[in-house]
């Protein structure tokens, strides 16, 4: 289940929570964030190749390439056995911006995006089927959890791929991690 929690930046212990897709989409649209739900036109196995994933979602990817001018798309897969999971998580957990849109479509698994807009922080738990498009220059961070499980399609205009400009703000340490949020939602 996708979840949006909206916090005041100084009050990470209290937030307004939304679980209906239409509510999440409306709240994110209001801050310029595209949030969609995609379904695969055909079934994919858990062992599908990256090329298979890109082919199955080709029409949707092409639409986004035209919409934003993206030049390339790839698939990133991370699981609990990934040798760089700790360093990657630490990097993504630091608040940063990008000079281009950051678009992620969750083919499988989940991840938690935090968007810091004005004095509010939007925590977006994305799951399989969710697409999120974070506008250029929006401060944000991402948590894939202590034991990640995700496969995402990423789209880029920059030939270098993922390039971040870190803010050096420690705000991410104040908000629930993916693992903490999952425990809270399960209770």
Can you describe this structure?
By secondary structure, the chain is an alpha+beta fold. The chain has one domain (3-186): Jelly Rolls. Helices cover 24% and strands 35% of the residues. It contains 5 helices and 11 strands. Strands 1, 2, 3, 4, 6, 7, 8, 9 and 10 form a 9-stranded antiparallel beta sheet that branches. A hairpin with a 6-residue loop joins strand 1 (3-8) and strand 2 (15-18). The longest helix has 11 residues, at 58-68. The two termini are 15 Å apart. 29% of the residues are buried.
Shape: globular
Order of helices and strands: EEHEHHEHEEEEEEEH
CATH fold field value: Jelly Rolls
Find the CATH superfamily. Answer: Jelly Rolls
The fraction of residues assigned to DSSP E strands is: 35-45%
**Total count of helical runs of at least 4 residues:** 5
Q: Label the structural class.
A: alpha+beta
Q: How many β strands by DSSP? A: 11
Question: What is the CATH architecture term?
Answer: Sandwich
Set down the secondary structure blueprint.
Blueprint: E1 3-8, E2 15-18, H1 21-29, E3 34-37, H2 50-56, H3 58-68, E4 72-78, H4 85-92, E5 96-97, E6 102-117, E7 120-127, E8 130-134, E9 139-143, E10 150-156, E11 165-166, H5 178-186
Antiparallel strand pairs: 1-2, 1-7, 3-8, 4-10, 5-11, 6-7, 6-8, 6-9, 6-10
């Amino acid at each position: 289940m996708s979840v949006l929690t909206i916090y005041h930046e100084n009050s990470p212990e209290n937030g307004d929570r939304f679980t209906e897709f239409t509510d999440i989409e409306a709240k994110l649209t209001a801050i310029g964030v595209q949030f969609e739900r995609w379904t695969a036109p055909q079934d994919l196995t858990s062992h599908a190749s990256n090329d298979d994933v890109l082919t199955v979602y080709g029409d949707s990817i092409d639409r986004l390439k035209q919409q934003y001018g993206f030049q390339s798309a790839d698939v990133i897969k991370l699981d609990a056995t990934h040798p760089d999971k700790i360093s990657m998580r630490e990097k993504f957990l630091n608040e940063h911006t990008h000079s281009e849109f950051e678009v992620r479509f969750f083919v499988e698994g989940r991840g938690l995006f935090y968007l810091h807009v004005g004095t509010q922080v939007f925590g977006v738990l994305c799951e399989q089927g969710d697409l999120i498009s974070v506008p250029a220059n929006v401060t944000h961070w991402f948590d894939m959890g202590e034991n990640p499980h995700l496969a995402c399609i990423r789209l880029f205009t920059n030939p270098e791929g993922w390039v971040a400009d870190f803010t050096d703000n420690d705000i991410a340490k104040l908000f629930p991690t993916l693992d903490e949020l999952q425990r809270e939602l399960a209770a």
